[in-house]
Design brief:
Number of domains of chain A: 2
Oligomer: homodimer
Strand content of chain A: 25-35%
Number of strands of chain A: 25
CATH class of the largest domain in chain A: Alpha Beta
CATH topology of the largest domain in chain A: FAD/NAD(P)-binding domain
Radius of gyration of chain A: 22 Å
CATH superfamily of the largest domain in chain A: FAD/NAD(P)-binding domain
Shape of chain A: globular
Largest sheet of chain A: 6 strands, mixed
Low-confidence stretches of chain A: none
Distance between the termini of chain A: 38 Å
Number of helices of chain A: 11
Structural class of chain A: alpha/beta
Mean pLDDT of chain A: 94
């Protein structure tokens, strides 16, 4: 009799941890991803701001599973799902049969039905986007240096970040440090310290999911970095020359050549496919509503985990879209499968909230661990330690540590390259 | 009275060394490049083969000249030259006046009037091309893993490198090591060791500019790496399915999905512009024929150096297109300018041949230093040392050393990423 076949879609935090936790289990695992690497998304903003190189936060899936004999990695894209025959269909027409399917396809940027804004305001969801954002930021200063018209020059030195969540806070802090610390002696005609960094937030405060005191602390720390925070600001238009925002009843136009989108995410389009094929419900972000054991209603053989899942059995509101959710659900999925193989029941999934942290800049961060709220240097040290710990690959850890040490000592950034020739950004999803 | 204005086109080995050697001189230096970094081209093949990240072999020009007060860096592209008004025209219409002009715009791939071959056989002249080649090599193995038709699978595992110079030798050795040492335990369906690496050379031997015994040694060392060398082979066609070569009177078709061009270079298009504006002669590779002091005939205020120059006053044949030519000419150009400012005559340029070296693989290389011919481990150790020495940036040296050490110890490669979505390669020149 052939072994129980577990097929996992996605090599992010959820899929990776599910596959790793099935090491040694009496199953055949197939991990399918469109990319050949696991990407450590929490540090992607450091690629976008020239602090790290792409390869330093990415690790080949095949290397991770080289010695895990029961696991096969396939580079491929899922185009359909046959729930009756229990087959996944890939873009080359190949059918991949499964006994248990784990869908961990993650999330993508949400432009809230304004896909036309994408070329003017790229988000931070892929390596390609990160190097494109890096290109735009660095090219902006270069163009300003050559621009003689002061109005146009100002637009090249005005950076707008849309969305005051963790990504927006991290990006705006980092861009301000580039302007004030990294580049300030490198130009002859412009003063990079004259740059303006604006962080646009629709709600009343930054980091809305954090406690209020940490939101206030983040705003204070950003202010020290000269980031201008604009709360209660709804974006009403984005084009090649800037952003239009509505604050209360007044409409304001910001002239800017560099706009970055960090306003929210939605589920991968695979969520819709799963829902169509299984009759599962999706929420307004396109996430699949799952049962207490992360399975799809009526399909115990299909699990949806991580950012793609709406899991609301732990306190009523969906779990946050953070790495920990994916990691814990991935490990849970593996344990559930192992119990089933032994015909043993298994307890429902329970999320253990280990806390939240966002970095703002040099020695600046906020962290919430249980009832403990930490700001500044200590939070930053915690952030550095935890991110190094979770980064996959011993070599990556050493190199990233070295790059951070170097950046800290010199204010420089190791990957200040303008590469690529793209004029238009195309969606990666 | 305003200072003597030196304008330098190109931040490669020639332009960089000219500008650096003018440090402290009583001149205003403007260094113009299309890119914001100096690229260490000799290690570009290591980016193309996943051993290094782009940022590790590139260094921002602005950082290099941060403390050199007499030097301004401009990101820009030269579109015209007004020799009477002594103005360079940039792509934004800006005119940059000069008293002395140093043109160090380098070389690009030469497809010998077959630009239609470019999309099927990218060359190794830019970071974009290198990451595209990396993408094609890694994607080939991934596609082979999913391909069931044995004939098609074989084409995905057949790598053709055209041109048996240093770049071709380095690329073919590195690709063979990827197949045999790096990936051989990573796939489940294919045996990456079954890959075929073919090095196509039009002439009788590899490394034609090296002594015959070193050519023979290189061929021997490549053979140990299972690279199949095909001398006397003229390429007659390249398309999406492979290469057609003519060996003597017989025509052979090689089915291959990955073809890399290393068959030769030609001068940057700026050579033609210089010739048209000054009446200078160019050779058949588009290089500007220069006087014994690297100036253009009739225009002592214009110097052409590095790969863009045909300098034939040192033994009759043009100097080789290697880093040393650019470095030495750059330093010479600076000294010539300093002498002129003192109204002192200066001796003609003389090339000091420090030797040649090409690496083949792990502990495999050839080197010619004066009358000394070295092969194998010793040549490889020399190659490593010299390349680390010449790499710009302390941090880059440390990181590259670390990556090499890691690769040597583990056979792995730190930058095994498939990135980019390009289906077509566009020329960078």
């Amino acid at each position: 009799m052939s072994k129980h076949r577990v097929v996992i879609i996605g090599g992010g935090f959820g899929g990776l941890n599910a596959a790793k936790s099935l090491k040694g289990a009496d199953v055949d695992v197939t991990l399918i991803d469109r990319r050949n690497f696991h990407l450590f998304q929490p540090l992607l903003y450091q690629v976008a701001t020239g602090a790290l190189s792409p390869a330093e936060i990415a690790f080949p899936l095949r290397v991770i599973f080289r010695r895990q004999k029961n696991t096969t990695v396939l580079l491929g894209e899922v185009t359909d799902l046959d729930v009756n025959a229990r087959n996944l269909i890939l873009n080359n027409g190949e059918a991949v049969p499964y006994d248990t399917l784990i869908v961990a396809a993650g999330a993508t940027d949400n432009y809230f039905n304004r896909p036309d804004w994408l070329p003017f305001a790229p988000g931070l969801k892929s390596i390609e986007n990160a190097t494109e954002i890096r290109r735009r930021i660095l090219l902006a200063f270069e163009t300003a240096e050559r621009e003689l018209d002061p109005v146009k020059r100002k637009a090249w030195m005005t950076f707008v970040i849309i969305g005051g969540g963790a990504t927006g806070v991290e990006m705006s802090g980092a861009i301000s440090e580039i302007a004030n610390d990294t580049l300030h002696r490198d130009f002859r005609r412009i003063h990079t310290k004259d740059s303006e960094v604006l962080l646009i937030e629709g709600g009343a405060r930054l980091l809305a999911t954090y406690p209020e005191d940490l939101s206030a602390s983040a705003e204070e720390q950003l202010k020290k970095l000269k980031v201008h925070t604009k709360p209660h600001s709804m974006v009403t238009a984005i084009d090649a020359d800037g952003v239009e925002i509505k604050v209360g009843e007044s409409v304001e136009r910001i002239h800017s050549k560099i706009v970055i989108w960090a306003a929210g995410v939605k589920a991968s389009p695979l969520g819709k496919l799963i829902a169509e094929r299984t009759g599962a419900e999706t929420d307004k972000m396109g996430r699949v509503v799952v049962e207490p054991d992360c399975t799809v209603k009526g399909h115990p053989e299909i699990l949806v985990i991580g950012d793609l899942a709406n899991f609301s059995h732990d306190g009523g509101k969906p779990l946050p879209g953070v790495a920990q959710t994916g990691i814990q659900m991935g490990k849970y999925a593996a344990r559930l499968i192992k119990h089933r193989l032994q015909n043993q029941p298994y307890k429902p999934f329970h999320y253990w909230d280990k806390g939240n942290m966002a970095t703002i800049g040099r020695a600046a961060a906020v962290a919430e661990v249980g009832k403990l709220h930490v700001s500044g240097l200590l939070a930053w040290a915690m952030w550095l330690t935890i991110h190094l710990m979770y980064l996959v690959g011993f070599q990556n850890r050493i190199v990233v540590l070295l790059q951070w040490f170097y950046s800290y000592a010199t204010f420089n950034r190791g990957a200040r390259l303008i590469t690529g020739n793209k004029d238009q950004l195309t969606p990666v999803d």
